[in-house]
Queue: 3 jobs
Job 1
Amino acid sequence: MSIHNIGNLSSQVVSRQGYSVSSYDRTDVFEFSINNTDRNIGLNLHGLTGDADLTLYFDSNYNGVLDSSDDYVTSSSLGGTDSDVIDYSVLDRGGSTGTYFAEVSYYNNVSGGPVYYDLDMTAAYDVGELSSSPISKTNFSVTATDSTDVFEFDIAANQNINLNLHNISANGDADLSLYEDNGNGIFDADDTFITSSTNGGNANDVINELSITGGTFFAQVERYHPGSNGDVTYSLDLSATNNRVALSETPFSQDALTLNEAQPSNLFEFDVAASQSIHLNLHNISANDDVDLRLYQDNGNGFFDDTDLLVASSANGGNQDDLIDYRAELGGTFFAEVERYSFDLDGEATYDLDASATYGNSSNLVGGEIDLTPGTDLSYDIARYGSVDSTDLVDSYAVSLGLYSGVNFSLSGLTADADIRLIQDTNNNGIVDLGEQISSSTLGQTSSESISGIENSGDYVLQVYQYGPTGTSYNLTVDHYSTPYA
């Protein structure tokens, strides 16, 4: 048995090439230490000329020697000359740091001679599955002798990978690269390079990249030695937003999405043209759950972080719809965050989200932001006071009209131009389709608006919306009357 001491294993790949085991010297042992609890041990036994197997042990008796009392961790024993790979998270052992042993053992060689092999060893940081809540790695460092850190993470399909390398130390330079795993779960030379950011000096490096298929990825932080003086410290934020889209008048819809204790928020990234109005409708929230909605404007780096500006929010109680209607004068990138407020007993909430961008202020999304008839049909007169402005362009009132009933709507007390329209979402898709606008009133300036004589039973949404660039307060009157017919 031959023993090789590798020392501390880090993100930098350690390769041992042209080694061999045989029927006379059946095992090689590679001893290495793991000093961080969140490391992912990657071992790749390849270039085989015969059959050899790979086993990982932990020095559980802490004597620095591989013996029978050490803990078996895992192994790979593929036949023939197929490569054996071990991808093991130290967190699976409760974050056990200390000494590990990688054992390469002879199995067979048809020629009868030794089995030659190469062994690559690395220990990337295990980040886990990315979500919209950024995972921050702060005060890490790369040095002249340990020049790279690698962070392994998983994402779901059709998500945007967001990486932000920042707080790089003065007189230091570090670069950021993104790789896609080749399927073996460890960082090696066969992984696919996707993109990189190599800004000079200690300027931030940012990567925003859409993954169609999802899977395992590696973010590599590398010290740029010509531009660095000594150790380079840095922070890295990692997150995944839902597929980035350019909003238009054609609504973008995501249905039956889920929040739970492990992932309490979802993030959606949008691009919007100048002078467009953003419309968001969070609806179909599961019974006994409460989910809220916030809209942020990107600070210019394309990455969701704590310096992005919160421009609008909606936090209606229970599973009532949450709507945002915001005027994006300059356009740009925006983030819509859906976050659970409370869950029912099963610890999970589902919801639908619709999003669009229009050049007018009225919304082509249907939602009952304010329910005028909770739990019953309209059977009495109602008066409401409200306001609309560039951060809340539309107030949407849900009205349920019963049999033998009619209703009139009037809008008064305006200080700037506002209009109203009545919508009946006959196909219940949450979108104002052709023919679903029942009536409207669009007089100019501060003229009062009215819609009268609505006498067909059913569910309606009345939109009060700002018309021009200036917001206004208003008085809304809902006048109920009885009819002699159903």
Job 2
Amino acid sequence: MAPNDSAETTGEATSTVVGRRKAARYIVPVAVAGVAAATIGLVPALASSGDPDLPKISAQELVEKIAASDEEQLSGTFKISTDLGLPLDGLAGSLAPGGEGKDGGKDGGAAAPQDKLMELTSGTHTLRGAADGPERQKLSILGDASEYSVIHNQGEVWAYDSKSDEVYHAEAPEGREDGGHAEKAPKAPKAPKGAPATPKDFAEQALAAVGDTTSVTVDGTAQVAGRDAYQLLIKPKQSGSTIGSVRIAVDAENGVPLKFTLSAASGGKAVVDAGFTKVDFAKPAASTFAFTPPKGAKVTEADEPATGKDEHGAAQKALPGQLAELDGLAGEGGFNVIGKGWTSIAEIKSPGGKGLPEAGSDEMPAEAQGFIDALGDKVTGKFGSGTVFKTRLVNALLTDDGSVYVGAVTKDALVRAADAAAK
């Protein structure tokens, strides 16, 4: 293994690099970052045997290499595993946006991207992806006997669920400008914001946290999907975060993130582990992005929501780039951010100052109270009393007066934040 420069990279050193890229590429709203980080728990055993002997590189140079990477053509297969430590299987999926419609169906039909792609927040999944510049991308989730694909081809977005034989169709964001005529647009994301899918998606969100609260070092080399890679290690300097570390395997030749692993401070299995098993940086065939609905398949158009909502409903918001941004909410409607960096906590005041209904009331039967108690821990402090709901990464405190404190922090950190706010 080649010795690598493991000196810490400070926020000042890294901000110069990131600042040269478009801000939107790295800046992630705190609430979205929480959800995204919660999906970081991919299959760890993706690096093949042998640590390649590579030239020395500093942490700053490696971050620069990622930021400067301009590979827009690739295809490959990768795996994602997430282990949030939720008390009930499938609970993560029930928290996903897009819920059920009046007829039990989901907005945009069974093939709607916002529902399918959020399934990646739990379990282990095998995906196949391809990209050819900013106007053509394809992402497929492979099942045992089925496949779900989202295809962005110039001015159109198609999604097809082979299990239900349903198709979702919409115009891509760049196809809605100037009366529907397609214009050259920035890269369309491969998944709705808040639902990162590829190792690069995860890496860019992790790099958004780099600053004076973060240690960034080069921690050896690895081989991923047959490619030589450097390993970038990102760790919080602050105490109180539930995040232990983020490890990114970076292609030594072109700077593309090949593998991403997020570990919890409590140890154990990775919370999120995503990495390529096969990757090819050649131009994909044009036929990869061609799609025609199969004969007999049910097709749902974006301007015809399945639940009867207007054309600005949730189905249309599922389009890449159309989900509402959470950035800018801070300071509005009772939303506030306490602290900074890895220990940031979102404080949300509920309308009317109401928390959970009282036990034994019509709104909270004893059975329901028992279920809530099994999911959370009762806590008290200067703020009064409340319940902390925990996962391995993101925890939330709901006080009895209706305030919510949520972040990738420990239970004690949430209580301290609530106590400080009560002064």
Job 3
Amino acid sequence: MDSSLQSLDQVKASALDMVVRFGPKLLVAAIILVAGYVVGRWVSRILEPLFVRLKLETTVRSLLTRTARVLVLGLFAILALQNLGVELLPLIAGLGVAGAGIALAMQGILGNVAAGLTIIFTRPFHVGDYISIAREEGVVLDISLFSTTLGHSDKSMVVIPNRKIGGEILHNYGQIRQLGILVTVAHGVDVNVALSLIEEILRANSRVLRDPAPVCGLAQLTESGVTIGIRPWANVPDYDAAVGEINKAILETFRAHNIALSLPQREVRMLAG
């Protein structure tokens, strides 16, 4: 019984000694970490309006503010470890070795991150732009560190890893697209009348932009007729609907004015034997 009491007293004494020796340091370390969290949030709140004035995109602003918060918190964490008497050099060396191993195992992910940072800071396209890249095209819905998401007119989405975008030829249409409509009329048609009717159709269509002005003219002369090129601009969401509406209006207008569309022609000569 006496030995048990002595053991209990020794445990209590050891615990009390640990509290006396390390308690203040742990308390100070906790205070330092809390201060680092508060200062990190304060710094991010100060930087956010600055990034807005610099007209940085939402993705870039979020990345920079989070990075600033992590750096501040990391600095305070180092101060807390130093207060506890932790040797930082061996710890940093160990983290370096572990980081090298992790980097080798995550080459694909790190490649996406590197490409994502390049896209975010060089800004070859923005959210809302219509782009064509890596054999895919669509409206940019989201740009993250790992991938870029495109939206199609059929409501589907394509997620492209950022490393597939780096080094590819990018076609950025921006917020508007130019339609490419070809109409071939017969050789006997008065082309000036046809062009005038097409211009009226374009002016009447609300989806066709006035600026830049539509381009309309003779695109090609063929054996079967005269091809008219019609290239107006429309906002990206209106592109498909505008193509259908303009084609329908041209067909109905040409029929009403007896303007004949060209038909495939083939000349066959028979030689007498």
